[in-house]
Design a protein that fits this description.
Order of helices and strands: HEEEHEEEH
Distance between the termini: 62 Å
Strand content: 25-35%
Strand order of the largest sheet: 1-6-5-4-3-2
Number of domains: 1
Radius of gyration: 25 Å
Helix content: 10-25%
Shape: elongated
Largest sheet: 6 strands, mixed
Length: about 160
C-alpha cells in the first residue's frame, strides 16, 4: 500500500485498526510514534549497488488506555510529515514490536489495515551461485526408450 492509498482510505473509516496476518489485532491503544521516509543504499551479493526508499510508520503500544488514534488524526500526522519532511509517495513499511521489532508491508482488507509478513530474498541469484529450483517430475510420466530399457529375463540386470 502506498501513502496515496492510505490517504484515500482514512477519510472513509470511523476508526483505525491494524491486524496481523494471523488475525490478531494490534491493541487498540497503539500510538503511531514515527512517520518518515527511509532510504536504504546498499550493495547486493552480486556487486550491484541499489537504493530502496519506503515510507515508514512505527506503531507502539503504550499503557495509555484512554486514547485511540482516529483516522483524521493519522491523516493529519501523514500530511504534516509530507509537509515538514518533504516525503514523496511510496510503499508503506510498518515497524511493530512483538518479540522483536518486525517490519511489515501494509494492506487493507476493507475494514482493517493488515500488517503483511515480509521475507528476505537474494537479489542476485544468478551471480551468487545459488542453484535454481529443480524441476519435479513424476517417474510414471517419463518416456521409455527401448534401446536403454531392461526387460525381465533379458539378462541386463
Amino acid at each position: 500500500m502506498t501513502l496515496t492509498e492510505i490517504k484515500e482510505i482514512l477519510p472513509t473509516l470511523s476508526n483505525v485498526a491494524f491486524q496481523l496476518e494471523d488475525g490478531t489485532f494490534v491493541p487498540e491503544h497503539f500510538h503511531v510514534t514515527e512517520v518518515g521516509q527511509i532510504t536504504k543504499h546498499f550493495i547486493d551479493c552480486g556487486g550491484v549497488i541499489r537504493t530502496e526508499q519506503v515510507v515508514n510508520f512505527q506503531l507502539w503500544n503504550a499503557d495509555d488506555y484512554e486514547h485511540r488514534l482516529k483516522p483524521g488524526k493519522l491523516l493529519h500526522i501523514i500530511n504534516l510529515s509530507e509537509e515538514k519532511l518533504g516525503m514523496v509517495d511510496g510503499e508503506i513499511e510498518v515497524e511493530y514490536q512483538s518479540t522483536t521489532i518486525g517490519k511489515y508491508d501494509l494492506a487493507f482488507n476493507g475494514s482493517n489495515f493488515v500488517l503483511k509478513n515480509k521475507t528476505t530474498a537474494c537479489l542476485a541469484e544468478d551471480a551468487c551461485g545459488i542453484p535454481g529450483a529443480k524441476t519435479k517430475v513424476t517417474l510414471s510420466q517419463l518416456p521409455i526408450s527401448n534401446a536403454s530399457s531392461c526387460t525381465p529375463g533379458s539378462g541386463c540386470c
